[in-house]
Amino acid sequence: MNDYVGASKAVAKIRMSLPTLTDTEARLAQVLTEYEFLEEKTPIKEIATKAEVSEALVVKVAKKMGFNGFSELKSAILGYRKGHSADLYSEISPDDGLKSIATKVFRTSVQALEETLAILDIDAVERAAQALAKANHVDIYGVGGSAQIGRDVSHKFLRIGRRFTVQDDSHMMMMSASVLTKQDVVLAISHSGTTTAVLEGADYAKSNGATIIALSNYDRSPLAEIADITLASTAQGGPLLGENAAARVAQLNILDVVFVQVARLDGELANERLARTTMAVSNKRKHS
């Protein structure tokens, strides 16, 4: 693993652990990741004082994030800052011109893609593809922007002859879940992993035997706890862009990988159906 990928994984680990932290622990995490004077020689006491917490809590939070201790966490943050990705993201300001805005928007998406690739669980992708390939029926649960991701996925899979149904209403999700069986799959999409309608629908579907695939920006979210398979993106954001915009790009790419693998599993049948669906809409395009 090269230093850049390793640092990206480390910082993604920090970001994805945030939903599991208390308010005090989250404040400490913010100090750790934003402290501009952080150096390899920075003592734990300095960070504890800055965050107004005990040194013991600093060690506890480092371990909660998946590191051996404060020193490993500090090294991960410093390694990330040294990599070129550390300079990719900066929040849009009132003084930015359109060129600067475009650059920041694009670079935020590039960063999300690179970091998501660094932490992508290939085994989970394979299991998700296998589950979708074998499913009798697939329902996609999501609201707002997550529902739009679901519609893109539904459109993509229809191209190879697989019909996915998008449910973006809490009542429809519960009705769907009530009739699913162990031969069926739910693809539950929630950026935060805490969307009530998606959680309730996925939980009910699972109680009826359906396989739950979660797609979220946090791999320790309540949705991930329900899921049989979790596909995680990682994206940071600020007041204007937020996380969702960049995460949406990363999540669409994750599902593109799953789509390609399902098509591979389907083999010639996928190619045949792709040719048929492409032909079906070809006369809807204006030719010169």
Automatic annotation (TrEMBL):
<dbReference type="GO" id="GO:1901135">
    <property type="term" value="P:carbohydrate derivative metabolic process"/>
</dbReference>
<protein>
    <submittedName>
        <fullName>RpiR family transcriptional regulator</fullName>
    </submittedName>
</protein>
<dbReference type="GO" id="GO:0097367">
    <property type="term" value="F:carbohydrate derivative binding"/>
</dbReference>
<dbReference type="InterPro" id="IPR047640">
    <property type="entry name" value="RpiR-like"/>
</dbReference>
<feature type="domain" description="SIS">
    <location>
        <begin position="128"/>
        <end position="268"/>
    </location>
</feature>
<dbReference type="InterPro" id="IPR000281">
    <property type="entry name" value="HTH_RpiR"/>
</dbReference>
<feature type="domain" description="HTH rpiR-type">
    <location>
        <begin position="8"/>
        <end position="84"/>
    </location>
</feature>
<dbReference type="GO" id="GO:0003700">
    <property type="term" value="F:DNA-binding transcription factor activity"/>
</dbReference>
<keyword id="KW-0805">Transcription regulation</keyword>
<dbReference type="Pfam" id="PF01380">
    <property type="entry name" value="SIS"/>
</dbReference>
<dbReference type="GO" id="GO:0003677">
    <property type="term" value="F:DNA binding"/>
</dbReference>
<dbReference type="Pfam" id="PF01418">
    <property type="entry name" value="HTH_6"/>
</dbReference>
<dbReference type="InterPro" id="IPR046348">
    <property type="entry name" value="SIS_dom_sf"/>
</dbReference>
<dbReference type="InterPro" id="IPR001347">
    <property type="entry name" value="SIS_dom"/>
</dbReference>
<dbReference type="InterPro" id="IPR035472">
    <property type="entry name" value="RpiR-like_SIS"/>
</dbReference>
<dbReference type="InterPro" id="IPR009057">
    <property type="entry name" value="Homeodomain-like_sf"/>
</dbReference>
<dbReference type="InterPro" id="IPR036388">
    <property type="entry name" value="WH-like_DNA-bd_sf"/>
</dbReference>
<keyword id="KW-0804">Transcription</keyword>
<keyword id="KW-0238">DNA-binding</keyword>
